[in-house]
Specification:
Layout: E1 2-9, E2 20-21, E3 24-27, E4 31-32, H1 45-50, E5 60-64, H2 65-73, E6 87-90, E7 102-105, E8 109-116, H3 122-126, H4 130-133, E9 135-137, E10 143-145, E11 149-155, E12 157-159, E13 164-168
Parallel strand pairs: 5-6
Antiparallel strand pairs: 1-2, 1-6, 1-13, 3-4, 3-12, 5-11, 7-8, 7-13, 8-11, 9-10
Length: about 180
């Protein structure tokens, strides 16, 4: 199983959207160099308010370009980085990967998936109706979160559009992704 990096983004401030760049640098144990969410403990403001000592399981946000395409087909105008992601991918079923999956990105970087991004009201602030469009129900009626996955950086390195992504599944038994 493999994919490709379509775009990379970061922002030094806590803005919803992140500008795309020619490349980003991942730092082991911390996240994206120069990004507001860099660190070993939580940086998302709501999580800091609840408990600033929580480990940062949301160092890197990845979204599949296929989500952008589906949202655009539904009438939303969405481009890479606009939903706050650091890495936009193509060709990977990010939402279907188990917890602990390692993504080898580019020449050196490795991130481990920790869970699903939980869509929040900021999506609607950006584009009215976007939050509902990023939620769904499966055949059993269970809530499906479509707004990408969160990860921690295991090995640092440069990441650029066009970089290959190789999937390394964790040992069995696999655990379904939950919101983080």
């Amino acid at each position: 199983m493999s994919g490709i990096v379509i775009a990379v983004a970061r922002s030094a401030t806590h803005e919803f959207s992140k500008p795309t760049l020619p490349g980003i640098r991942l730092v082991a144990g911390l996240g994206v160099e120069g990004d507001a969410h860099l660190g070993t403990t939580v940086k998302h403001r709501s999580r800091v308010k609840a408990d600033p000592t929580q480990p940062n399981l949301r160092q890197v946000h990845l979204i599949h370009a296929e989500l952008h395409e589906a949202l655009n087909a539904a009438g939303f105008d969405i481009a890479p980085g606009q939903m706050g992601e650091n890495i936009t991918t193509r060709g990977l079923d990010l939402l279907g990967l188990p917890e602990g999956t390692r993504l080898h990105v580019g020449a050196r970087a490795i991130v481990a998936i920790t869970g699903l991004r939980n869509p929040c009201y900021q999506l609607d602030d950006f584009r009215p109706g976007l939050m509902a469009a990023c939620l769904g129900r499966d055949a059993a009626g269970n809530l499906v979160r479509k707004a990408g996955v969160m990860a921690v950086v295991m090995e640092g390195g440069e990441v650029r559009p066009g970089d290959a992504i190789r999937v390394e599944l964790p040992p069995l038994p696999h655990r379904r992704l939950e919101k983080v």
